[in-house]
Design a protein that fits this description.
The protein has 193 residues and is of the alpha/beta class. It is 35% helix and 22% strand. It has one domain.
Length: 193
């Protein structure tokens, strides 16, 4: 994920965001929360005391896609809730609201593409989850987190780890969760002009 982070930093610098306002090193990306004192994000942008952006960059490789999916979903939603509640409570003194971004990379593997059954002992699950692969589940998670305004934008990528060193070795399962859409929305929030 460091390559994605570095490319995002480079893009923001080229777009005019001052380098010293982009924080991507460990120890520099802590932001206050509401339910906990702080959370370390993967990237934070603070310009002249104004909190403009925070990004979470996550990846998952197999073989245990099931447990990890639930953990990643809970983590992503909890981080967003914590930050937005802190924002509501004026912890940041920032207007307008910052960009909150979630970029997720999933391993391309038989286990991530295969249909997954659901357990429904008491109530039926939403139809879109029935027989959905983990690729589809992550796509739905990312889209719904943006729809419900937990994140300003999300990016969802799938890549074969055996091709990790090749350029453009990833696919974008959904156009609305593409790299370009994600980066355009990020730049709208961080470039002053």
């Amino acid at each position: 994920m460091n390559g994605f982070r570095d490319a995002i930093v480079e893009l923001m610098v080229k777009a005019g965001v001052p380098t010293d306002c982009i924080h991507a090193r460990r120890g520099q990306t802590y932001l206050p929360g509401f339910f906990r004192p702080t959370k370390e994000w993967d990237l934070a942008v603070v310009v002249e005391g104004q909190f403009l952006a925070a990004l979470e960059l996550k990846a998952q490789v197999g073989p245990s896609f099931g447990n990890n999916f639930n953990n990643r979903a809970e983590e992503a939603l909890g981080s967003a809730l914590d930050l937005w509640t802190a924002y509501r409570e004026r912890v940041f003194q920032t207007v307008p609201p910052p960009f909150l971004g979630f970029l997720f990379l999933l391993e391309e593997a038989p286990g991530s593409r295969a249909p997954v059954s659901v357990r429904e002992p008491h109530f039926p699950v939403l139809a879109e989850f029935r027989d959905a692969s983990y690729v589809k589940r992550y796509e739905l998670l990312c889209r719904k987190m943006v729809l419900e305004r937990h994140y300003t934008a999300a990016c969802f990528l799938v890549a074969d780890r055996t091709k990790a060193r090749q350029q453009d070795n990833y696919s974008e399962p959904a156009a609305d969760l593409s790299v370009d859409a994600f980066l355009l929305e990020l730049l709208r929030h961080v470039v002053r002009g």
